[in-house]
Design brief:
The structure is a single chain. The chain has one domain: Ribonuclease Z/Hydroxyacylglutathione hydrolase-like (Metallo-beta-lactamase, Chain A), CATH 3.60.15.10. The chain has a 7-stranded mixed β-sheet, with helices on one face. The protein has a 7-stranded mixed β-sheet with strand order 7-8-9-10-11-12-13, with helices on one face. It is of the alpha/beta class. It has 5 helices and 14 strands. The structure holds nickel (II) ion and manganese (II) ion. Nickel (II) ion binds next to loops.
């Protein structure tokens, strides 16, 4: 599976012949300028963890550009529809079979409202399984016992977790989460974008290394094959 980081909590994963784009927030993020071109981004599916602006800012533009199917909470998807997105798959916490395999929308401990102030439904995370395997993205969340259920849906080859703290887990919490979800390879997101979530990269990586696990903190625009 190929993972590409677009800054903040926006990334894509190519798996099972499909491109999954998550939480599109690029143009308002100055750190991406000169490193990511919106017009180059491809997607078959755009998965949205919750309605906050730092996760949906470029959702409508990229859905219209790519023709991708937008997947997320019923309320978030309804907001996108009102703005002209036609290919949608509304969900609530639960499991679904799609053309690529299985998808589980699972709880996150966070909040969710949309940029227009409307209710965003429940914030969540995704467990995606294709012919190439399973990966988990928690979405914005604090540490929660809900994560103990993640391995029930399959062994994640890697997981994407927030590590910036303040609004979400920090690296210490993310290590506890990594233990709960039974995953040794974690890709950190939701760090450095704003002052309140700036982190010491080496210290965060050491938290994981000392526990025999790996934390990857990628450069914006960087890809890795996992
Ligand atoms: Ni949020
Ligand atoms: Mn956020």
């Amino acid at each position: 599976m190929k993972f590409t980081f677009y800054g903040h909590a926006c990334f894509s994963v190519v798996s099972g012949g499909k491109t999954f784009l998550f939480d599109p927030f690029i143009t308002p993020n100055e750190l991406t300028h000169g490193k990511v071109n919106l017009s180059d981004i491809k997607a078959d599916y755009i998965l949205v963890s919750h309605g906050h602006g730092d996760h949906v800012a470029d959702l409508v533009a990229l859905a219209l550009q790519t023709g991708a199917t937008v997947i997320g909470a019923y309320e978030v998807v309804g907001w996108a529809q009102k703005l002209g997105v036609q290919n949608v798959r509304p969900m609530n916490f639960g499991s679904a079979t799609l053309d690529f395999g299985r998808l589980h929308f699972v709880p996150a401990a966070h909040s969710s409202s949309l940029p227009d102030g409307s209710y965003g439904g429940n914030p969540g995370g995704f467990i995606v399984t294709t012919s190439e395997g399973t990966f988990y993205y928690s979405g914005d969340t604090g540490l929660t016992m809900e994560m103990q259920l993640v391995p029930h849906y399959g062994k994640s080859k890697f997981a994407i977790l927030p590590v910036g703290g303040n609004f979400t887990m920090d690296a210490d919490d993310a290590l506890t989460a990594a233990r709960m979800i039974d995953c040794d390879k974690i890709i950190g997101v939701h760090f450095d974008t704003f002052g309140l979530i700036k982190i010491d990269h080496d210290a965060a990586k050491k938290v994981f290394a000392d526990a025999g696990k790996e934390l990857l903190l990628l450069e914006i625009g960087e890809s890795v094959t996992l």
